[in-house]
Amino acid sequence: MEKDVRRVILQLDERIEIKLALIESLGKICNFEQQLVLEEYDKFSTTIVQEKQEEINRRVREELGSVSGHLELQSRSTAQAVAELI
């Protein structure tokens, strides 16, 4: 699209200085648009990474809770077995 607009500008019946100024302005507008898109992509990407990290943290907490519960049961069982031996 930018290329098409540049062609239209070049076909205008204006002085070359005006055409160059218009093309330069067009370039700045397009660069600004690209910057906005990149910033939004970066925000989106950061959000996805944070969500994935939170999911991983949640799973780790759940797994640790499960392992902790299992170890507690084994500890009680071991203590009970030792008590029976004594």
Give a quick set of tags describing it:
86 residues, mainly alpha, 2 helices
Structure description:
With 86 residues, the protein is mainly alpha-helical. The protein is built from 2 helices and no strands. It has helices at residues 2-11, 16-85. α1 (2-11) runs antiparallel to α2. The protein starts with a helix and ends with a helix. The model has no long low-confidence stretch (mean pLDDT 92).
Mean pLDDT: 92
Total DSSP E strands: 0
SSE run: HH
- For the record, give the distance between the C-alpha atoms at the N and C termini, rounded to a whole number: 87 Å
Structural class: mainly alpha
Which residues sit in consecutive blocks of at least 5 with pLDDT less than 50? none
Question: Over the alpha carbons, how many angstroms does the gyration radius reach?
Answer: 33 Å
Question: Which percent bin holds the helix content?
Answer: over 70%
Estimate the strand proportion. under 5%
Number of helices: 2
**What's the story with the biggest beta sheet?**
none
**CA-based shape:** rod-shaped
Task: Indicate the topology.
Layout: H1 2-11, H2 16-85
